[in-house]
Amino acid sequence: MFGLFRSSRKSMTIPVMIRKYLSFLLLALVLQGCVQTLAIRTMGGIMDYGFEAFNEESDLQLAQEGLGSNLKLLEALIKGDPENTKLLLLASQGYSAYALAFVEDDSVERARIFYLRGRDFARRVLHQNARLREAWDKDLDTFRASLNTLSREDVPAVFWTAFGWGSYINMTRHDVSALADLAKVTSMMRFVLEKDPTYYYGGAYLFLGSIEAVTPTMLGGKPEKAKEYFEKAVAASDGKFLMTYVFYAKTYAAQQLEQDLFESLLTKVDDAPLDILLEARLPNAVAKRKARLLRDKIAELF
After folding, report:
1. Rounded to 5 degrees, what are φ and ψ at 201?
2. What pLDDT score was predicted for residue 280?
3. Which helix (H) or strand (E) segment is 154 a member of?
4. Which among 59, 97, 183, 278 is most buried, taking Cβ atoms within 10 Å?
């Protein structure tokens, strides 16, 4: 009887030990995952500071060399934490900035690729909203209605999605299917204007002004509206974000054949000190280089 009792007790003990072991193993895996996520998010905070430092850099070669490698590091971090909003937005802004600053003047094809990457990283943030995700490929009215489910907090994701997408479309105007998406991009930028018109130095004004300026009047383009948008973009940064003047000249002034305005806008860029906006030294350095490239095209533009 006692022998039977001891045998039964052992048979009960083994499964208990197994359950304890499995529980311990599960706990270890959970803790490992938590530690990994914590490490990634801590690194994400460091990357945030890193991108601030990039935007303050005035040496274009140094910025270009550093930005490319850091973008791949960001992608690695995103693989470990795929819904991390901060990392996704940094990657979106980073790829679009890389395309604008260092690629599009030399290789349109590569710039298209990077602008789409920029769009897609920010779109992953927006697609966390189920209604917007479902409306993405549907008609314009359904898409616009889904934007109404977003708030001011969604402005960065909307802006960088639209910026990458719109920049891709602008460089792919021969593709009718790409142009068909422009109305959705415009709707997104109008959402930004409604919720936070000063976001990224009035970037939505700058974008919409460029669209109105390059669209022929016979197709609905409104030159005076374009000029109004650009002036509001200038005001949003007190004239300190120099890229605004570059696009003002490149689109509106060139399209309207206003050479005096074109040259005066580029002169503003040339004459402005790089330290005019400390947190945007890099974009302003890029603007100065793009202004020089535009000056070289005066004969063919006018």
Report:
1. 55, 40
2. 96
3. none
4. 97
> What one-character-per-residue DSSP string does 32-65 give?
HHHHHHHHHHHHHHHHHHHHHHHHT---HHHHHH
Amino acid residing at 201: Y
Distance of CA 154 to the CA centre of its chain: 12
Cα separation, 224 vs 117, in Å, equals 33
Q: What is the model's pLDDT at position 176?
A: 83
Show the low-confidence residues of the chain (pLDDT under 50): 1-12, 21-22, 24-31, 33, 35, 38
Which residue in 34, 101, 135 sits closest to 246, CA to CA?
A: 101
Burial of 177 (0-12, 13-18, 19+ CB in 10 A): exposed
What is the token pair recorded at 108?
């349109």
Element housing 253 (H / E): none
Contact 242, 283 (CB under 8 A): yes
* Domains detected in the chain: 197-302 (1.25.40.920)
- 250 — phi, psi (to 5°)? -65, -35
What pLDDT, in 10s, does the model give residues 176-212? 888 899 999 999 999 999 999 999 999 999 999 999 9
247-285 pLDDT, tens digit per residue, is 999 999 999 999 999 999 999 999 999 999 999 999 999
What's the sign of the alpha-carbon dihedral 34, 40, 43, 47? Answer: negative
